[in-house]
Amino acid sequence: MTLMSKLVKPPTFKPFKLALIQLGNISANKNDNLKHAREMILKAASGKPDLIVLPECFNSPYGHVHFPVYAEKIGFTPGEPYDIGRSESESVKMLSSAAKECSTWLIGGSIPERDADSDNVYNTCTVYNPQGELIAYHRKVHLFDIDIPGKIKFKESETLTGGTTTNFFDTTFARIGLGICYDIRFPELAMISARQGCQVLIYPGAFNMTTGPLHWELLQRGRAVDNQIFFSMCSPARDTTAGYHAWGHSMVVDPMGKVLCEAEAGEQIIYTDIDPNVFEEARAGIPVTKQRRFDVYADISVGL
Length: 304
Description:
By secondary structure, the protein is α/β, with parallel strands linked by helices. It is built from 6 helices and 15 strands.
């Protein structure tokens, strides 16, 4: 569910097991990428997680020149039933089938999406319930346009359009907020999700060898502590033969800023148990959620 659900009380936060797939072997062949991703989802499911996460751009090489070539039409409207059988997206069909086969919640990383009406291309995350139903999505809001002289220049806006909504979904164990990669640099998005009742935020992402060492962990710990929520980012594995070198180091951070688990650089599946007691203790001991001065500054979540 997206913003339409914001007035609904969040589900009771319960313990759950989270699996992050730091996917490797992402090639120019989409069919091979989908096959490998499915194999890794099934492998991750053997650890009995409640929620499995794939990385950003798992079905294609990462780069603005690739996005339009690999883009798929999804045609999802939040809040309306989605017919997987009639979907034009082969990636959506694979993810739905895998979630249903594993009987688990699945955040399908992100894929390039082409809007059927506008023809705009988005970087889009899709979410599936254990019955394989597509129930939520998030279009990357903030596009990765940076230029660090002598190190990296990248401009997603050359081919992508930014999304216009904040998004979350409810499970039987938590309300989970969504973002993608560069979205993490904009604290407003995480603040809004937390104030809408999200206990966990998950952002598929692909930081690089310049920004990764600098800010990957720092930003996740910062967002977790600021909002007293669990925060996680899932990266592709590092491939130095690819055009874009991902940092890797997929991780999960608790509301006190403690790194609960962290991958290395290569392909890897990591698991962590999410404990709601840490969430409750953080908010009880340092009660910033009850101490905000909206008489002094604005609540940016109001009116959305």
